[in-house]
From TrEMBL:
Gene Ontology biological process terms, A to Z: amino acid biosynthetic process; aromatic amino acid family biosynthetic process; chorismate biosynthetic process
Record note on quaternary structure: Monomer.
Binding site for phosphoenolpyruvate: 22, 100, 128, 175, 354, 396
Organism of provenance: Sulfuriroseicoccus oceanibius
Family the entry assigns: Belongs to the EPSP synthase family.
Lineage: Bacteria, Pseudomonadati, Verrucomicrobiota, Verrucomicrobiia, Verrucomicrobiales
UniProt keyword annotation of Chloroplast present: no
Gene Ontology MF annotations: 3-phosphoshikimate 1-carboxyvinyltransferase activity
Top-level lineage group: Bacteria
Protein name: 3-phosphoshikimate 1-carboxyvinyltransferase
Length: 441
């Protein structure tokens, strides 16, 4: 079992870049794997989650090759030759590991194929609700079933000639949206969704990048016209703002810290964390270095540490910061005043119940926090102390509490942190620099 042992460290300094964006990397493998021709992907996130998606695409006929000189176990440059929308039936179960994104997006593609496939995952993924994607793909004409009332994995999909639908999402989820739109690629006519709040739009941008027009109305509607042909395209994946989040919070909350994170994705459907930190009083400067021509905006973020002030996070903003809430809760505990997180019940169905995990760990470190059904209230200002913590096999919990441990008095041990590799391989070496008082990168 791999643990992280953390002690109080100096405020972070230096310049770093972070590995590729997880959401964009999943989609790059799926789109390139379906396209006609060969695409080159740079900056691919070679994490366990995204490698599952790349292997799944190989299982249905795409050729995925690491570029020369790349570590074959964790390649960040890939050459993918797609199947031109003619998928092969997989010879075995498709293993999605720990990844909700892999399972829910691949299910959309598989719903439209004339064969049966089975999607499996690890213990955490096998506890997460899949009814949210089974319902729309059944409406589109596929047969799909999971286990029990919550329709959990293993998921069996007997694909079919699916037909287009208009689907109103019951929750703000980019995974459900993407599942329906990916199935819609194979349908005759217009497939549309309505989302109750804006969610990350990487799938829409990727459609456009691969030559498929997307209709949006700015009020929640997204539609494509099928059937679709994708032409191979090269992709440069920006750094993942959800991984940068840990260092951004470590820097923003500590007077004396100074950090630049270079080459980070700045898609406005993902930059809510910067808005929240600024609302808390953080000193953050953003420089856009490349624009929407590449499909996804990217740039540098410079942070100068200060004592911050608590804020409320709620409503439509929650979808934008959904993966950053654990570390934003830590930011709240390190700030003056009250931080409140509302409308975030979706956190209960992530890799673990993130509301309960954050509350438990903050309490163990001496913070004053109250759990609510859809969030929590954190009364900041207390000096955190070290503790022995579980991360509940959840990468975001492990990394968020590594940041908390760096400010706490005494030693913090986070147990069983192998899950960090699902989104941020290399996190521990950056953390090692921070703990040694050296520049992060
Ligand atoms: O579409 C995506 O790439 C993701 C969407 C979000 O999940 P939901 O769609 O369940 O909100 C997010 O939490 C996940 O890390 C990645
Ligand atoms: C929720 C996450 O991912 P997924 O849903 O893909 O497992 C995450 O990375 O925080």
């Amino acid at each position: 079992m791999k643990n992280l042992t953390i002690h109080q460290a100096d405020p972070v300094q230096g310049e770093i870049s972070v590995p590729g964006d997880k959401s964009i990397s999943h989609r790059s493998a799926i789109f390139a794997g379906l396209a006609n021709g060969t695409s080159h992907i740079e900056g691919f996130l070679a994490s366990d989650d995204c490698l599952c998606t790349a292997r799944a695409m190989e299982g249905i006929g795409a050729t995925v090759t690491p570029a020369e000189g790349e570590d074959p176990q964790r390649p960040t440059k890939l050459t993918i030759t797609g199947v031109g929308m003619n998928l092969q039936a997989p010879q075995s179960e498709i293993d999605c590991g720990n990844s909700g994104t892999a399972m829910r997006l691949l299910a959309g593609v598989l719903a439209a194929q004339p064969f049966e496939s089975t999607l499996v995952g690890d213990a955490s993924l096998s506890g997460r609700p899949m009814g949210r994607i089974i319902t729309p793909i059944q409406l589109m004409g596929a047969e799909a079933e999971g286990v029990g009332e919550r329709q959990t994995a293993p998921l069996t999909i007997r694909g079919n000639e699916v037909h287009s639908v208009h689907y109103t999402l019951p929750m703000a989820s980019a995974q459900v949206k993407s599942c329906v739109l990916l199935a819609g690629m194979f349908c005759e006519g217009r497939t549309s969704i309505h989302q109750p709040a804006e969610t990350r739009d990487h799938t829409e941008r990727m459609f456009v990048h691969f030559g498929v027009p997307v209709e949006t109305d700015g009020k929640g509607l997204v539609a494509i016209e099928g059937p679709v042909k994708l032409d191979a395209r090269d992709i440069t994946v920006p750094g993942d703002i959800s991984s940068a989040a840990f260092w951004l919070v470590a820097a923003a909350t500590r007077p004396g810290a100074k950090l630049i994170v270079r080459g980070v994705g700045l898609n406005p459907t993902r930059t809510g964390i910067l808005d929240v930190l600024k609302r808390m009083g953080a000193d953050i400067k953003i420089t856009v270095t490349s624009g929407p021509d590449d499909g996804e905006p990217m740039g540098d973020i410079e942070v100068t540490g200060k004592k911050l002030q608590g804020v409320v996070m709620e409503g439509d903003e929650i979808a934008n910061i959904i993966d950053e809430i654990p570390v934003l809760a830590v930011a709240g505990a390190l700030s003056n005043g009250v931080t409140e997180i509302r409308d975030a019940a979706e956190l209960r169905v992530k890799e673990t119940d993130r509301i309960s995990a954050v509350v438990k760990n903050l309490k163990a470190m001496g913070a004053d926090v109250t759990e609510r059904d859809s969030g929590m209230v954190i009364r900041g200002g207390a000096l955190l102390h070290g503790a022995e913590l579980e991360c509940f096999h959840d990468h975001r919990i492990a990394m968020a509490f590594a940041v908390a441990g760096m400010t706490a008095k005494g030693e913090t041990v986070i147990k069983d942190v192998a899950c960090i590799d699902t989104s941020y391989p290399g996190f521990d070496s950056v953390l090692g620099n921070a703990l040694a008082g050296e520049p992060l990168g």
